[in-house]
Amino acid sequence: MLHSDAAARLPAPDPEEPEYVIAASASQLEATPRTLKHDDTFAVFDAHGDAVPELAGNHGIFHRDTRHLSQFFLTVQGVRPLLLSSTVRDDNATLTCDLTNPDLPAGDGRDELLHDLVHIRRSRFLYRAASHECLSVRNFDVVPRRIELAIGFDADFADLFEVRGAHRSRRGTRAAPVVERSRVRLAYAGLDGQTRTTTLGFEPTPTALTGDRALYRMQLAPGETFVMFVEIRCDAAHPGPGARLAFRTALRNARRDLRQRAARGASVVSSNHHFNEGLRRAVSDLNILVTDTPEGPYPYAGVPWFSTVFGRDALITAFETLWMDPAIARGVLLHLAANQADRFDPEADAEPGKILHEVRFGEMAELGEVPFRRYYGSIDSTPLFVMLAGAYLERTGDLDTIRLLAPAVEAALAWIRDHGDRDGDGFVEYGRRRGDGLVNQGWKDSHDSVFHADGRLARGPIALVEVQAYAYAAWQAGALLARALGDETSASAHALRAARLRDAFDAAFFDPDLGTYVLALDGDKAPCRVRTSNAGHALFAGIALPGRAAAVADDLMGRASFSGWGVRTLAEGEARFNPMSYHNGSVWPHDNAVVALGLARYGFRAEAARIFEGLFRASIYFDLRRIPELFCGFARQRSQGPVSYPVACAPQAWAAAAPLALLQASLGLGFDLPQGRVVFDRPRLPAFLDRLALRGLQIGQDRLDVKLERVGEGCAVSVIGRTGQAGLRVET
User: Fold this and answer.
1) Among 534, 320, 578, 567, residue whose Cα is nearest residue 444
2) CA torsion sign, 165 to 169 to 172 to 175?
């Protein structure tokens, strides 16, 4: 995933280096964004339910990387109503905004209207490439009122990268609006030969309708309510059944789909209602970000900028949710296998066996103005893919799926061996093939995220610490998978490669003076001797020798790295440290989840619980309890919340899933398939939880419900329900 700092950089970026930046001209916080998503469509509105580009440039309805509605603005008697409340339902099914009138003077044949006499409620949701809205207006005055309500609208059909700040020398052609009795069709003929359309339908028929405005004039008796429906459909081949019927049908179907998705995985309820609220929001965010593909459920990365297929993000999200809902991992693996590179294509940074980084469908991607139409420029997606395949087999025992994946796994391992290792030294390095591709191709892909202790940017090819860890785990997983499929020869060869890589990694990457692993080796094999959270990924993947783990844990949890809210991406005191930067001092929830899983793997359960506690305390301060993509890395202060990052995505899949992974890390939760048991290895509840219930833990075809209660520093674990023969094992 490509991101960019909105804060200061050291030094200024090279003007010849392309950066697909996210402009920070306005903080999303100022506009209090309300986001909705369904499949390939997402929307960003303000708290009123309006899309107002002047307030925030990312407002609107987006479908397949094109903004199909850029303005949607409600007025009453010609002025904007006052906001009473605005919220997205806990299950993310609908956005509801309650509004009222301000004081309105007499004029144009209208009497004076005092404030708070007219109530307006807007309920809106997305379903199958359309926005559906029910808008009700009620007169609470004791006399009849004549009310004029108008909705202004527009569609600029801007490419997502234009909205993010890219400039284009030329664009396609917008057609004149086609206005019918209760419908308006807006269209744009792109330079890529595609025509993109937006159709707005209104019911009942407006008093007046033009190409950019719908006007309703109504006379309401005391207590009377007027109800109208608006449907906004993207790229519709045929008109729908009418806005009213479409709203009711789509709402029923959308809620049914969300219920079915939520019922698929395990559930969590605790003694802390703040945690329960946050976890409900996290699971709901995951449910709306998960998109059904032909291969199965796939979590899109995040709204607004990354609502599409990303390889790395989905793989990490699948790891975070594997204990709770293995179907997500299966969908991710099968979809990425179906889109695995099978040939060399420098324009897409593609090589045989490489796993996808990003897919885009917009005009700029189709024309090659940005390189992300089908882009393979990530160095870690391929080893993570094999890692996840192994973890999925251990979690589910699903050999049928592994057989389907076997050719893709072998191709991915061949890529690690033949193309990932560019100079034959046994390490996996990256360097872009295309001039405007990503400069850095690990998860920290800002242009300045890989550097030396003196602040000099590293020159490639670059071997990142976490990528070697993933490659080690990929060879380990490859051995597991080959053995499960009866191929002992390949299993032994893969295991030998893993052992050799582990020894070489320890010699090249562990720095005794630094007390942890270096960030990377540059193109001259010189180590980047800076302290970063990347070292924690070596614990996650298991490449760290047991004797190194304590030093790494101490560094990660020291004051320079741990802000109190979480582990910083870069330790305070390093050359490029900036708590407001994107990757050089900020706190990323998913990164902390991976670090915590790594700490727990090596027995540092208390440290994992400490990270869990920090992120939970931070989450209380976020709007809707929604954990964002990242936040600033300033130290935690008494009676103050964390400092937000102004253009962080929310919801974001791997951030939403972070509490689930942190819970697993703290509890030491695992699964022993041969014995049919759920396992808790030295479980520990974080300080904010006294009791916890996990229901629907799947082990094979059976399910188990358990309760955990704090007992001193540990937990008492008991079975409270089961289906089939599922068992329990607690290790102390």
Assistant:
1) 534
2) positive
* Banded pLDDT at 12 (limits 50, 70, 90): very low
| Tokens matching residue 372 | 């992300």
Residue 264 Cα distances to 27, 287, 667, 697, angstroms: 36, 11, 22, 11
DSSP 348: G
**Three-state SS sequence of 159-186:** EHHHHCCCCCCCCCEECCCEECCCEEEE
Question: Is pLDDT at 428 greater than 80 in this prediction?
Answer: yes
8 Å CB contact between 97 and 48: yes
User: For residues 365 and 368, what is the distance between their CA atoms, to the nearest angstrom?
Assistant: 5
pLDDT tens digit string along 121-169? 999 999 999 999 999 999 999 999 999 999 999 999 999 999 998 999 9
Phi, psi of 76 (to 5 degrees): -125, 125
356 DSSP 8-state letter: P
Give the pair of three-digit tokens for residue 399: 């050999």
* Residue 383 token pair: 């080893």
- Residue 139 has phi, psi (to 5 degrees) of -90, 115
Which residues are CB-neighbours of 278 under 8 A, at least 6 positions away? 616, 619, 620, 625, 627, 659
3-state SS assignment for residue 559: coil
Runs of H (alpha helix) within 324-377: 326-338, 363-367
Residue count (the chain): 732
Q: Which two tokens stand for residue 203?
A: 């019911």
Give CA–CA dist 221/224, Å, rounded.
5
Strand partners of residue 159: 66
CA–CA distance, 684 with 665 (Å, rounded to integer): 9
How many CB atoms neighbour CB 430 within 10 A? 25
CB atoms within 10 A of CB 126: 27
Q: Are 31 and 46 in contact (CB under 8 A)?
A: yes
Neighbours of 507 (CB within 10 A): 8
What is the Cα–Cα distance from 117 to 510, expressed in whole angstroms?
69
**Cα(491)–Cα(484) distance, integer angstroms:** 9
pTM: predicted TM-score of the whole model, two decimal places: 0.91
Asked whether 632 and 579 are in contact (CB, 8 A), the reply is yes
Encoding tokens for residue 462?
């670059």
Residue given tokens 């392309």 in the structure block: 18
Query: Cβ neighbours of residue 126 under 8 Å, at least 6 residues apart?
Result: 36, 37, 38, 41, 42, 43, 61, 132, 254
User: 32 CB contacts (<8 Å, ≥6 apart)?
Assistant: 46, 47, 86, 623
Sign of the dihedral defined by the CA atoms of residues 552, 553, 559, 564, in that order: positive
User: For residue 137, what are the β-bridge partners?
Assistant: 120, 226
For residue 474, count other CB atoms closer than 10 A to its CB. Answer: 30
Encode pLDDT of 330-366 as tens digits.
999 999 999 999 999 998 999 999 999 999 999 999 9
Distance CA 448, CA 582 (A): 10
| SS3 assignment for 430-498 | ECCCCCCCCCCCCCCCCCCCCECCCCCECCCCEEEHHHHHHHHHHHHHHHHHHHHCCCHHHHHHHHHHH
Q: Report DSSP state, residue 203.
A: E
Q: Please, what is the end-to-end C-alpha distance for the chain in angstroms?
A: 40
Longest Cα separation, the chain: 89
Is residue 333 within 8 Å of 314, Cβ to Cβ? no
Tokens of 278: 């946050």
CB atoms within 10 A of CB 78: 11
